[in-house]
Structure formats: C-alpha cells, structure tokens
Design goal:
The complex is a heterodimer of chains A (about 325) and B (about 450). Chain A is mainly alpha-helical. Helices cover about 70% and strands about 5% of the residues of chain A. Chain A is built from twelve helices and four strands. With about 450 residues, chain B is mainly alpha-helical. The chains are: A mainly alpha (about 325), B mainly alpha (about 450).
C-alpha cells in the first residue's frame, strides 16, 4: 500500500466524525424507540415522543452524510459493502422506510398506538442491530468467500466481535435515551430516565471493556493504528459518566453519556485504520484509505464538509437550545 | 428475469414513490413562506393559521419523503454497485453535497417550523420558513444536477452525438481513466452540465404547481363543506394565482426541455414524439399509440405541428429514430405515452387553474360547486404528470445509465438474481403499504380544520 496523503487520512476521519455525530444524536431517539413499548402510561409515552419529535430529522440526517461521504470518497468500498451485504441492506431499508412514518402516525392514529409503538420499536432495533453488526464486522473483517462475494450466512454475524458490538450499541443507546429524558422531562419520566441510565450504564461499562479486549484480540492483518490510548480514554469517559452523574445538572447528564458513546469511535477508527473495508477472504484485497477517489474529489468534499458542517453544527446547537425546555405532559405538540 | 431488470423495477418503484413527496414538499414550502411573509408584514392571524395548517401537512409529507428518500443512496450501492464504483467521485460527491448543504437546512429548521412557533421570535420563525424553503430547493437543484449529468454529461452537442464519445477533462469537467474510473476535474462543469438549469426550472415550477393544486383542492373542500370559509377563501386565492402562473409556464419550460433533448440526446426526442422516420411536415400527436413492430405512430395529430414547433416552418425536417442505430433506441411506446400523458394533464390543469383564478375574487365562488369539485379532483393530476414526465425522461435515457458512457446492463451490481427476486416483492409491498398509509392519513389531517 502506498503512503496515504493527509487528505486521505482526513477524509477517513471526516467520515468517522459524521458517523460519531450520528450515534451521539440519533442514539437517544433510537434508544427511546427501544424503550417505548415498555413504558406503562400513555402520557409518559407522549412526553417521550414529544421530547424527540422536533429533532429526529436533524439526527437521522447524519447517517446520510456519513454514507454519502463514503460514497464520494471511497466509492469502491461503499458499493462493495452495500452489494455484498444485500439482504441486510434490504432489512435496513425496511426499517428506514417505516421509522419516520411510525413516529408521525403514533401521534395521529390514537386507536392503533399499540401497533405503531411496536413498529417504532422494531425499526429502531433493526437500525441499531444493523449498525452494530456492520461496525463489528468492520473490525472482525467481512467474511468474503471470494474477492467480491460475501457469505450472507448468519454465522458471519454470530461471532464474538459483531455480537458484542450489537449489544454495546443497544446498551449505549438505552443509556443515552435515559440521560436525554432526564434533561427533557419532569417526573415521572425523568425518574424513569434516571433508572434506565443507571442500569444501562452497568451493561455499557462491562461491555466496553469486554468488547475492547475482544476486538484487540482479533488478528488484524492491518492494525497500524494506535487503539490503546483511545481504549483507555473510552473507559475513563465511561467511568466519569457514572461518577459525575449525581454532581452535574440534569441537562449535563446527556453530554456525559454522549461523550462516552463518542469515545467508542476513535477506538473503532484506530483498530481499522488504514483499512476502510476489511476482507477476511484475502487481506491483500482489503480496501484502504489509498483506494479512494482521486484527489480533486477529496479536496472538494473535505473542504466543503469542513466549512459547511461547522455552520450546520452552529444552527443545530441553536435548534437544540430552542427545544431545551422540559416537555409538559398533556400539552399538544402541534 | 435477470438481476438487471429486477433491479430496474425495484429502483424505478422506489424512486417513483419517493418522487411524489419532494414535489409536494417544494410546493408547500413555498406556500408556507408566502403565508408567513404576509403574516410578518400585516400581522393578520388568518395567514398564521394558513401557514400552521400547511406546516402540519408538510410534516406528514416530509416524513414520507425522508423515509422513501433515505433508502435511495443505499440502493445505488446495493443494486448499482458498478455504476457507484465507477462514478462515485462524481455522483457520490453530488449526494454528499446535497446531504451537507441542503438536507441539513430543511431537516433541522423544519423542527422550528412545526414546534417552535411559541419558542422563537416572529422574525426567527419567518427565517426558519425561509431556510426550509431554501434547503428543499437547494436539495432539488443538487439532485436534479446529478440526474442531468447522467443525461447530458458532455458540453459539446457534436461530441454527445458521436457513437463513442470520450469525455474531456477541460471541456466536460471529468474524464475516464484506464481502469474505467471516472475522475472529476471541474465540479462546476459537471454540476452545471447542459441540461441542469432547464431541468431544474421545469421540475421546480412543476413542484410549485403540485403544491398549489394540492392547497387549491383542499381550500375547495373547505368551501364545499362551508367550514373555515374566510381562511379557505384566502387559501383558494393564493393557490389559484400560484397554480395558474406555474401551469401556464409549463408548455414553454417543457418545450425547452424537449428541444434540449433533441440537441443533446439523439433518440430521446423522436421517441417522445413517436417520429420513426426523418421527415418534413412532421405531425404533432396529441394522443395516440405506437406500433413498434410496423414502426408507425397512429392517433390524433396536428399536421406539421412538430416541424413548426422545432423550426417555425412546416417544411422543417424533423429528425426521426431512423437517424440512430436501433441498439440506442429507448422503448418508444412507453416513452411516447408517458410524455403525452404529461402534456395532456398539463393542458387540463391550465384550464382548471384559469377557471379558479377567474372565480377566486368573486363573491359567488362558494356557489360554483362544479369548479370547487374540479379543483378537488385535480389534486392528484400534477403528481401523475410529474411521474409521467419523470418516466419519459428516464425511459428516454435508456439504454444508457450515463449517456453514451455506461449502459444500464453495465451499471448493475453483480449480485445473484435471487437476491433481487426476494427484495423486489418485499420493498414493493413496503412502498405500497406506505402509499396506502399516506392516502389514508393525508386527507384526514387535511380535514381537521385550518388553524
């Protein structure tokens, strides 16, 4: 592999940043999807939905940014990944097709709420599981059976690293949802959020350690990154999230859980770098950061993304500030 | 059936269903911006109510648009992997630009539009309406530019007409290297390729027409049922003017696109017009059918119409399909019918919208029940016309995915046909389910009162 240019490294980091923001923002609304059917009272469910409604669009969008940036910068990796994972992608498409709609119709279709909240649960779960499994396989290597053939069998997913990554994501998003509800709701939903945060944190903390050890033990034919330092940061931030939970204001708890989740991604990036798509059939067929688009596309997309996404971050923060109040039960959303 | 055909069906259905919603979104975003602007100036609560009502409809439409739209970039990778690998530096860049600059604006500020009325000041709220409008239109521009590049990648009509044209880095803004990789060299040239602007104007005004007729029909329903009549009357006037202006613009903007296709895309124009043989006195078909085996078109026609439209003279020679090798013909029947359905609906809409404008300021508007019923019945017409126009544009581009550079058979993923044979019914059922939900819920929401 030729030495990567700094632009190629920057492009790799940029996609990682977009996917990190996706996990940190969409993480809590996916988590609320996982919680919703298990909450008893209608008015509590209403508060949970109202708390995420104004912002979910802006959250989900970061998956599109990450995906489109991968398409532009590493088209071969993008197309190979999506075509070899075809059956999984179809499942993901179904979830993406129905999730926004279940959300909208839960509100309007009062008689069928039972169905809509379970659909919301299932679509949220599917997105979480597919994301977790994909990251897990990115770390363990995608089980290709030929240079461009992938074994679609479940066995590929049912190995320790993908499974642990799935569980890690589920616990992370539940923890994050709990923290978000603490910031955006009054009792009893606030208390519920606090309980969910505390319990999910235990699972998350245990999983971070086990997952990191398991991921490190995979024989990485590539492994040029320095994951140790990032792994330690992730563990420290995870512990801090719990230790400071009682001391920071209610609104800050969600920052702590967001930071803990964000700290997973440098670990994933460092374990992967310089590989973009790991091919377990033939490590020589790994797609690395040097297998991307020509330099002009890199310059265009990275400069544009750096400038414009900073502005986007600005107005996203503004909108989150507009919706920082505690959601009141029984207040019509619109 | 092979994987390519199945993939074409799946992508066609996905994009076709998605295309319903962005059209409405653009139109309603304009409608909201207009109502909010009047409200900001005059402080009349009537306009605030109209805007709030339209915003709730927009929320539902936007949710369906996001749902059906978000799967499309994934389907490029899953079903059109060879296309994605080769053109990623260009096509992927366009999707990234759309996500970064445009979709961000609309999806973040729509939150304020829907839930922020009492949480931000009046001018901030107006600004949010403006940004949703700007974001959705920027989105349309970028996506249309991507589609236009697939239709007209060359900046020289003589080159586009060659049998094997080669893109030039300086002239066209990209070239293809020895490995078949498309290399971007000048994004401005790719973005503003020869058909981007004309296609954008035609599509966006058609989207405004779609949104305006949607609101016109809803206002008519309120007038028919004598509910919220004061607001419905204002809504009716706004929608009537907007729909009339955009409807009468269509023949001109549409013909510009036909002429453009004639200049840049060889066999596409004669296929839309059903002209097999190059001739003078070429007729202009209003409606008809194509006999592909005998290579004849039959139907109701204006004698010499196409010759006059193209060259201002009946003796002008119109190029027919015989000018092009048959391996480069699109499917003539469906391209012809889709094109003519669009034109026919456009004509009907001009009539309905003109009548709506004529009666909009009369006191007896509410008693013109025939007109109000016609407006209500017209709601689906622009959507059908959009779909037909899109089908004509896309079928007309075949057999190419990227004009003269990549055939659709070369663009598809090399995946087992069984994969797509399984996903096609699954995705189709899901899309059908979504359509049913939309058709069920949009009217219920629209009948809840203008407030």
């Amino acid at each position: 592999m030729p030495d990567p240019s700094w632009l190629q490294v920057y492009g790799f980091v940029l996609i990682g940043v977009a996917l990190t923001v996706f996990a940190v923002l969409d993480g809590f609304d996916l988590g609320i999807g996982l919680l919703l059917p298990f909450v008893g009272r209608q008015e509590d469910k209403q508060v949970m939905i109202d708390a995420i409604w104004p912002v979910w669009d802006g959250n989900e969008l970061w998956a599109l940014i990450g995906g489109a940036a991968l398409f532009a910068l590493f088209p071969t990796a993008f197309a190979t990944l999506l075509s070899v994972l075809y059956p999984v992608i179809v499942l993901l498409m179904l979830a993406l097709l129905f999730r926004p709609v279940t959300f909208e119709l839960w509100y309007h279709d009062a008689r069928a709420r039972f169905w809509w909240e379970w659909s919301f649960f299932l679509t949220s779960l599917t997105i979480t599981v597919v994301a977790g499994a994909a990251y897990g396989m990115a770390l363990a290597g995608f089980p290709f059976t030929a240079p461009d053939r992938f074994s679609a069998s479940l066995k590929a997913v049912l190995t320790p690293v993908p499974l642990l990554t799935v569980l890690l994501f589920i616990s992370a998003f539940l923890m994050h949802a709990g923290a978000y509800l603490v910031a955006r709701a009054d009792d009893p939903v606030r208390a519920l959020g606090l309980r969910v945060f505390a319990r999910a944190w235990v699972a998350f903390a245990a999983l971070v350690v086990i997952w990191f050890v398991a991921a490190m033990s995979v024989k990485h034919a590539w492994g040029r990154g320095q994951p140790w330092a990032f792994g330690i940061v992730a563990v420290v931030l995870t512990i801090l999230a719990r230790a400071l939970a009682g001391r920071v204001g209610e609104r800050r708890l969600v920052y702590l859980s967001g930071l803990a989740i964000a700290s997973l991604f440098p670990v994933i990036g460092a374990l992967q770098y310089p590989v973009v798509l790991a091919n377990s059939y033939d490590p020589a067929a790994n797609l690395t950061v040097t297998d991307g688009s020509p330099a002009y596309t890199f310059r265009l997309v990275t400069v544009l993304a750096s400038v414009v996404l900073t502005i986007v971050a600005g107005y996203t923060i503004f909108v989150y500030r507009v919706f920082r109040h505690k959601v009141k039960a029984g207040e019509p959303a619109y | 059936m092979d994987a390519v055909l199945l993939s074409r069906m799946q992508s066609g259905l996905s994009i076709g269903v998605h295309f319903i919603f962005p059209g409405l979104t653009l139109g309603l975003a304009l409608f909201i911006l207009l109502a909010e602007s009047v409200y900001l100036k005059t402080d009349r609560s009537l306009y605030r109510d109209i805007s709030a009502f339209t915003s709730r409809l927009l929320a539902l439409i936007f949710a369906f648009g996001v749902a059906t739209g978000l799967i499309l970039p994934f389907s490029f990778g899953s079903n059109w992997a060879e296309f994605s690998k080769a053109t990623g530096p260009i096509f992927g860049t366009t999707l990234a630009v759309e996500g970064i600059t445009a979709f961000t604006l609309e999806s973040v500020f729509i939150g304020i539009l829907l839930f922020g009325r009492n949480r931000v000041g009046k001018s901030t709220y107006w600004l949010s309406a403006l940004l949703v409008f700007v974001g959705s239109h920027l989105s349309a521009l970028v996506i249309i530019s991507a589609n236009s590049w697939m239709q007209t990648p060359f900046h020289d009509a003589a080159v586009a007409a060659l049998a094997h044209p080669i893109p030039d880095a300086v002239r066209d803004g990209f070239y293809i290297d020895a490995n078949g990789q498309y290399v971007l060299t000048n994004y401005r040239l790719v973005f503003f390729n020869p058909s981007t602007v004309a296609r954008f104007l035609h599509t966006v005004t058609a989207a405004w027409l779609t949104g305006a007729v949607f609101m016109l029909g809803i206002a008519a329903w309120y007038l028919l049922h004598e509910r919220d009549t004061d607001k419905a009357r204002i809504m009716f006037r706004m929608a009537a003017v907007l729909s009339f202006l955009t409807a009468i613009a269509q023949p001109m903007l549409g013909d510009a696109q036909v002429q453009q296709a004639g200049k840049w895309q060889g066999a596409k124009k004669p296929a839309m017009e059903g002209v097999f043989v190059t001739r003078t006195h070429a007729p202009l078909y209003v409606a008809g059918w194509v006999d592909s085996t005998r290579r004849e078109t039959h139907g109701l026609a204006v004698p010499s119409g196409t010759s006059v439209l193209d060259g201002d003279s009946p003796t002008f020679e119109v190029a027919g399909l015989d000018r092009y090798p048959e391996s480069e013909w699109p499917r003539v029947g469906i391209t012809f019918q889709a094109f003519h359905l669009m034109v026919l609906i456009g004509g009907v809409l001009i009539g309905v919208c003109a009548a709506a404008v004529a009666f909009a300021w009369r006191d007896n508007l509410a008693r013109q029940r025939w007109l109000l019923r016609a407006c209500l019945a017209a709601i689906p017409l622009p959507i059908l016309a959009n779909e037909a126009g899109w089908l004509a544009a896309e079928f007309g581009r075949q057999p190419w995915t990227v004009w003269k550079l990549m055939r659709t058979t070369q663009a598809a993923s090399r995946i087992p046909a069984g994969y797509v044979a399984f996903s096609l019914p699954v995705i189709s059922l899901a899309l059908l389910g979504l359509l049913i939900l939309f058709v069920r819920w949009a009217p219920r929401l629209a009948k809840k009162g203008i407030r």
